[in-house]
Amino acid sequence: MVRNILIVDDDMLLRRSLAFHLEQAGYHASTSTNAEEALELARVSLPDLVILDIGLPGMDGLNALRRFKEALHVPVIFLTARSQKMDEIVGLELGADDYVTKPFDSDVLLSHIKAVLRRATYNTNFLVEQVPIEVGDLRIEPASHTVTIRKQPVILTSREFHLLYILALNAGQVVTVDDLLARIWGADCMSDSHLIYVHIRWLREKIEVDPDHPRRIITIRRVGYKLVAQEGLC
After folding, report:
1. Confidence of residue 234 (pLDDT cuts 50, 70, 90)
2. pLDDT digits 0-9 by tens, 183-207
3. Sign of the C-alpha dihedral, residues 208, 212, 218, 224?
4. Which fold has domain 132-227?
5. E-state strands within the chain
6. CATH class belonging to 4-126
7. What global pTM score does this model have?
């Protein structure tokens, strides 16, 4: 099956160059100059992955990312300038699956594309087969990607959901940072433990009564994290 990749960038030369390299690598590439057009195009022909520039005319990349994730549930790789570190962080918090800084080597971007598509396929197959999990008053529904605490919904990004899901599968046991990186981000990110620290912090802000003094997600220093059952904290 040929994967369809949508490129959203207002730089014509970049769009043409990137589309050419993707076609050479065996993908089908479609392009758009702005987010509004890209969203309409994606609704007609759902892409397997979106490459999204953050600095778009009209609707910016962060708002477009939210729309792509909420409406279409499609993996997104951000393209961002080297000076836009905060945008990278915000993009990941909103649910971007990866980011690549400009200027970039096409082979580097291709490796990111392969990793994101591989994770998306694995996560879809893995979660659909699973039954709901309850850890104390926390309930996870893999098929619908929903989380509740005492029957109250908790809104999580895709990465936060998968992180919590893996911890829940091993509730009461320590899951190492390396294991979390390998299962959620893939082997290409094994050296970037900061990804785990940041997403654990965001996850705690959503499921802990006091994120600075967590009682659900416990840090085991120099090893990893474990999810502990709680009742009636939220």
Report:
1. very low
2. 776 655 555 677 788 889 999 999 9
3. positive
4. Arc Repressor Mutant, subunit A (1.10.10)
5. 4-8, 28-32, 49-53, 76-81, 98-102, 133-135, 138-141, 146-149, 152-154, 175-176, 217-220, 224-227
6. alpha beta
7. 0.58
